[in-house]
User: Which sequence fits this backbone?
């Protein structure tokens, strides 16, 4: 393994550790590691130095987000509106990371393009694209129908629109961060396989911010891998955004997601 690769793997693992410490409020070791990373910037090669700055800007943006959220909690607004505002604050780490990448004169790859649809879908066996998408639509329709029948949630137009708006905003901004920016950056310093694995672990730690069970962590890890695979196969985050949105709606209907609506 080349030295550049070793540095890339180390930085990616360090990012996962920092995600864990930050989301679990272990702030003392978190800030010491950030300080050490800052002092080591001069010894890193350019691609790795860029990712180190991406790490710093990611957490810098998230710290601003946390403080702004505390400020918003002191303002008298409807609980649902407060949730939406908090989701929109994720624009801050996106902008901070994009600013860093631009300072290195690098192209920002958000995968915000029309999906490139292969003629055949390569699974353990080859499936025709038309049959695959038809089957997927039928399965999604069946799942939603069963959930609608068995759930205790009394769905109406207001509830559905409120849920859909939240799910779409959350899915869009998080997919831009995790699959649009971080996945592409980690691919550059490791490879596709490890990038999918590492971003999925970090995504699961970050999403289970409030200390869900290990089973929920595994669920987010698996879905993170699925979203990453979809993004790489189609060269676009749009299918992952759709899948993420549907997942959040299912979580709400299943009681895994609570919203003040």
Assistant:
């Amino acid at each position: 393994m080349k030295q550049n690769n070793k540095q890339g793997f180390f930085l990616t693992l360090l990012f996962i550790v920092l995600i864990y410490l930050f989301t679990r409020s272990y702030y003392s070791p978190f800030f010491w590691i950030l300080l050490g990373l800052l002092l080591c910037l001069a010894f890193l090669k350019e691609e790795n130095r860029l990712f180190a700055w991406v790490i710093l800007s990611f957490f810098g943006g998230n710290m601003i987000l946390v403080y702004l959220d505390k400020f918003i909690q002191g303002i008298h607004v409807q609980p649902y509106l407060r949730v939406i505002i908090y989701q929109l604050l994720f624009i801050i780490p996106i902008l901070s990371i994009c600013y860093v990448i631009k300072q290195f004169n690098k192209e920002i790859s958000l995968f915000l393009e029309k999906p490139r649809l292969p003629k055949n879908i390569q699974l353990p066996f080859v499936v025709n694209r038309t049959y695959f998408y038809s089957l997927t639509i039928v399965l999604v329709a069946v799942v939603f129908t069963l959930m609608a029948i068995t759930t205790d949630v009394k769905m109406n137009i207001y509830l559905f629109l409120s849920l859909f708006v939240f799910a779409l905003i959350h899915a869009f901004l998080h997919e831009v961060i995790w699959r649009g920016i971080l996945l592409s950056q980690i691919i550059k310093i490791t490879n596709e396989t490890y990038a999918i694995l590492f971003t999925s672990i970090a995504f699961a730690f970050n999403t289970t911010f409030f200390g869900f069970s290990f089973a929920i962590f595994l669920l987010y890890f698996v879905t993170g891998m699925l979203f990453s695979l979809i993004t790489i196969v189609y060269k676009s985050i749009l299918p992952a955004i759709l899948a993420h949105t549907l997942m959040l709606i299912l979580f709400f209907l299943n009681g895994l997601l609570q919203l003040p609506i």
